[in-house]
Amino acid sequence: MLTIDYTNWLLVFVRVSALLAVFPLFTGPNFPMRLRAGLGALVAFLVAPTLPPISVSHLAFGTLISWLLAEVSVGVLMGFVSRILFFIVDAAGNLVASEMGLNMASMLNPFTGSQAQAPGMILYYLAAMIFLSLDLHHSLLVGFQRSYTYLPVGGAQLRETLFQDIVSRTGNLFLVALQMAAPMIAISFLITLIFSVLSRAVPQMNVFSENFAVRSLAGLVVFGLTLNLMAQHILNYARRLPEDVLTIAQLLGPG
What we know:
Largest sheet: 2 strands, antiparallel
Structural class: mainly alpha
Distance between the termini: 31 Å
Radius of gyration: 23 Å
Order of helices and strands: HHHEEHHHHHH
Number of strands: 2
Strand order of the largest sheet: 1-2
Strand content: under 5%
Shape: elongated
Number of domains: 1
């Protein structure tokens, strides 16, 4: 029978609660705080017995507090890395809405509690469905449990390679979003080019009103036809999340 070291439980609970506080599927106003705390307590209850016990008798109070703060920082950083997928979806949705002329048509995103355009909402729901239907949330929890192999409690250390990795991931965010929205940008450029030629050939044409209608209609068609391609981009990035969490643990670990 596994025995629980309550100091381990507390430190694991702090790390996993910080991760859940940042990860978007668990931070929405429709996800109760009590349920989030209960989920964190359950994960800590399952993970803590697998870790070596910690003796607090020789630890100063300040050391324990510093460990708690370090575990909060580690959890927030892991949650941020996991959330990059949804940052990508938001950026791609904004690009698509801009090319379709739907910037002003915003609605409430129930996951984040903020305003978002219709294409961004569709991509956000698509990312959430892919993430949950493929049980990637279970893989993320497995990656979280394995992170203690590389980053034990109280062993976090800041390194230059960690900052380089975070900057690289943030820069890659815009690249992936641009790849997802590339078909929309291409068709928007083509329509603009065609109407630029027509405005020269037929000066009396109201280019602005005609351009807006054609751009919106063509954008909806291309968006629907390329949704499968966007889903593949989301899936490719989502499958990397457990390994990304382990990478952060390795960069923060003492080894």
